[in-house]
């Protein structure tokens, strides 16, 4: 019994460095996502020049570019020109690190973990770009869709060989097609009711990407959750005066939120929903 307890305690001790490493990997990816979020809509290179102060354009030193800790060490100011650096940068890094931790905690060392890390990275980048620019860049939605189909095929192959890969790929394709149709239908209906465009073309492409990763069932749930949370936030913004009735609101962040919730809780939600009709 003592040996078993010591073994469990030793494993817990080993888990701490592993979790720290996972968070650091996620935060480092988040640091790169900050570059993508800022440069991609502006048509700038994602590689050159290296990370620099957004004000004086001085290249950051390695110790200044450490995710989260670098910003805290500098107290939110550039070491050269002393201009304030927006807290959104370390926040995105921290959020990415936390998402990586949650995925790792649920799925462990697996293909699903690598895939879902990729999926969340794309979702976070697209959500933030949509908040900033009201656009969802094609290079991200299209590459994300392709990666989603590849992920479905790989997972299917790991479960059922070639037949499983084909089934997984087809599931992703169906999710992609249904996602486009669903958002187009919502957009057309909303435009008829509002008398103005209700959805951007990028929203349909993002929904197609989500369908490729999650399949059509979880994609539908993600769309429902996105519409629900978007309606709640929109009504709150209207009542508070922060949004006018004719003012556009980015829908990408709500689609990303719905996709994340569906990935973590979707199966449980669907099972509970189906049980309601079997009682």
Approximately how much beta-strand content do the residues carry? under 5%
The average pLDDT value, as a whole number, equals 85
The main sheet comes to: none
Question: What's the β-strand tally?
Answer: 0
What is the string of SSEs from the N terminus onward?
Answer: HHHHHHH
The Cα radius of gyration reads 21 Å
Number of domains: 2
- Fraction of helical residues: over 70%
Count of DSSP helices?
A: 7
Structural class: mainly alpha
How far apart the termini lie comes to 45 Å
Taken from the alpha-carbon principal axes, the silhouette is globular
Low-pLDDT ranges: 1-11
Would you mind describing this structure in some detail?
With 279 residues, this protein is mostly helical. It folds into two domains: 13-109, no CATH class; 139-279, no CATH class. The chain is built from seven helices and no strands. The chain has helices spanning 2-39, 69-73, 88-107, 111-133, 138-194, 201-240, 252-276. Helix 6 (201-240) packs across helix 7 (252-276). The protein is globular, with a radius of gyration of 21 Å.
Layout of helices and strands, plus pairs?
Layout: H1 2-39, H2 69-73, H3 88-107, H4 111-133, H5 138-194, H6 201-240, H7 252-276
Concise structural overview:
This protein has 279 residues and is mainly α.
What are its keywords?
0% strand, 279 residues, mainly alpha, single chain, 7 helices, 2 domains
